[in-house]
Amino acid sequence: MRDPNFQRAVVFIAAHTREDGAFGYVLNRPLAQRVADLLPDQDLGALGQVPVFVGGPVAADKLAFASLHWNRKKGTLRCQTHLSVSDALHEMSMGHEVRGFVGYSGWSSGQIENEIQHRSWIITPARRVILATEKPEAMWGAVLDDMGPVFSLMARTPENVRLN
């Protein structure tokens, strides 16, 4: 993907229908800020220390909260979006990872299907490595490594192969 918003981005698609399009968050673009940095006048408790990420190019003036956790029984990543402050605090109390997102990623009806058909995206079910990667900037490579040797090779390809 040549769009700088999505180049080497790990995007979790939280909702998708052919009729309504798709919605999700970029998971590997930290802002190096905490929620309290963006909402200094609010008493947020533990939520103030939650890291904030660039969720995507849509509504980049809005802050949203999402909870992520791995469902061991189903082997799936669960993501709850559009959390209120009290919902986010509750999710944190349950041991789930909560993140703040500035903006989100969105596609209109048929748009993401068209991009997938043109092979603009590498598609995989959510992987546990997403939550296990300590440095979000390393997540793209970690996910590709987890997908197997061909994808691992892709992870090590320079962004601009002409400079190789």
Q: Based on the coordinates given, report the CATH architecture of the domain at 11-123.
A: 3-Layer(aba) Sandwich
Please estimate the helix content. 10-25%
Question: Which geometry do the CA atoms define?
Answer: globular
What structural class results from the helix and strand content? Answer: alpha+beta
The CATH class assignment of the domain at 11-123 is Alpha Beta
Question: What is the terminal separation in angstroms?
Answer: 19 Å
Give an overview in words.
By secondary structure, the protein is of the alpha+beta class. It starts with 10 loop residues before the first strand and ends in a 9-residue tail after the last helix. Strands 1, 2, 3, 4, 5, 6 and 7 form a seven-stranded mixed sheet that branches. The protein has helices spanning 35-38, 85-93, 111-117, 129-132, 139-147, 149-155, and strands at residues 11-17, 21-26, 30-34, 51-54, 58-71, 76-83, 97-107. It has a domain at 11-123: VC0467-like. Helix 5 runs antiparallel to helix 6 (149-155). The model has no long low-confidence stretch (mean pLDDT 94). The longest helix has 9 residues, at 85-93.
